[in-house]
Amino acid sequence: MKSDVVLSGLLPEELAEAADIPLSCARRLFSRIQKGSVLPEISPSTIRRVSLDRVKALGVQRELRLVEQAASSLDPFIKYAFAGPDDKPFETVRIPLEKTGRYSVCVSSQVGCAIACRFCATGTMGLTRNLEVWEIVGQVQAVSQGLTAPQARVHGVVFQGMGEPLANAARVIAAIRILSEPAGLAIDQRNITVCTSGLIPGIRAVAEALPNVRLGVSIGDAREGKRQAIMPIDETYRLTDVLRAVGEHARGSGYAPMWAYTLLAGVNDSPEAATALAERAAAFVQEFGIRPRISLIPYNPVAGNDGRQLPFERSGASVLELFREQLLAKGFGSIVRYSGGGDIGAACGQLVQLSEKRRTRELPSASR
Ligand code: SF4
Question: 231 has which bridge partners?
Fold first, then answer.
């Protein structure tokens, strides 16, 4: 009887060992599986029949079900809702990059999230489950297979969809290894960013396993004692300790971390808050010798899982500008992240479980 091993969740080495086939053969099969081929259609002329039969006996091929797909009318963002075998939807966003035909994919790592950042729609859902390796990889595969223009390809991946990736760190690490494997989608690890609310054990695990992957950390509020009000995770992992773990990775890898700062009107957008952020950045440079890339994210007002609006507003343009100026006055430039797809709920912090009503509007599967 076949096991429930899902073949797209295995690296070539794991496939070779589990199926007891030569590594060269496993690499060819891995490549075909990752690029969307279905095993029965693979001709034994390119793969030894005995190897193909062993892999077929080893496990199954699964694909995500596309529940819904929405293209923004404001910009070329596309949001997808996929579901695994339990039918619980999770969301993925295709983000166009500056260079035509290049895309980044914002992927989910969990259905829901237990971290409960107060400003985040996903945080109101609670955690349903961790995604499996093949479900994380499958989001990027599906987006990649949907790119039909010549030369179009997935250039990067950002773990900033639903869920706290480092609460599912082992599977996220395994998925990154598969996504970056040269025989597969070959996404450069330097173009993969793992964004965390600050789970220190996970930061250390990623830093050790994947030193080339970039880290992003959600700052929330740099002022001592203020962060906890909007990010309860700070009660367990204090920002000072989180930044130390991020700094150690930066010092080892040489890659500047991204500091994501979601501006909330009247909460963390004051000149004092900007000064506190700049002081944290200066202390970080002094200790680790690397300047963080500060990314300011205008907030997208959103309703939580119960349909009620979350109690936060977007900062006004003049407040945002003043905040930037305060940072600059202390020697820190910042970028204002264009958070696209606002009309389809694809922007940062807007990903939330689809309602039953919307879930019934099914579309055919994107992949194969
Ligand atoms: S911002 Fe990220 S970590 Fe925080 S609740 Fe939302 S999904 Fe979870």
Answer: none
Residue 117: closest CA among 312, 355, 315: 312
**239: three-class secondary structure by DSSP:** helix
Using only C-alpha atoms, the chain has a radius of gyration, in whole angstroms, of 21
Q: What is the pTM of this model?
A: 0.91
Measured in Å, residue 279 CA sits from the centre of ligand 1 at: 25
100-137 burial: b if 16+ Cβ within 10 Å, else e: eebbbbbbbbbbbbebbbbbbbbbbbebbebbbbbbbb
DSSP 327-361: HHHTT---EE-----GGGT-STT---PPPHHHHTS
Residues 80, 181 contacting (CB under 8 angstroms): no
Q: Name the residue among 60, 43, 61 with its Cα closest to residue 52.
A: 43
Question: What Cα–Cα distance (Å) separates residue 182 from each residue in 35, 117, 133, 144, 145?
Answer: 12, 36, 18, 15, 17
Mean residue pLDDT across the chain: 90
Q: Using CA atoms, how far apart are residues 27 and 238, in angstroms rounded to an integer?
A: 43
**Ligand 1 geometric centre to CA of 97 (Å):** 24
Reply yes or no on whether the pLDDT at 161 is more than 90.
yes
Task: Please answer whether residues 203 and 196 qualify as being in contact, where contact means their C-beta atoms are separated by less than 8 angstroms.
Answer: yes
Q: How many Å apart are CA 141 and CA 270, to the nearest integer?
A: 42
Q: How far is CA 52 from CA 27, 45, 56, 160, 266, in A?
A: 12, 10, 6, 36, 61
- Token pair belonging to 65: 């079900």
Pocket test for ligand 1, best of 117, 129, 158, 264 (most atoms within 8 A of CB): 117
| Distance between Cα 301 and ligand 1 center (Å) | 15
Q: Whose CA is nearest to atom 3 of ligand 1?
A: 164
**Angle of helix 271-288 relative to helix 317-329, nearest 10 degrees?**
40
- Measured from the Cβ of residue 91, the count of other Cβ atoms closer than 10 Å reads 26
CATH 3.40.50.620 for domain 65-359, yes or no, is: no
Active site residue 91: yes
Share of residues in the chain with pLDDT > 70 (%):
91
Predicted local distance difference test score (pLDDT) of residue 333: 96
The closest residue, in CA terms, to atom 5 on ligand 1 is 123
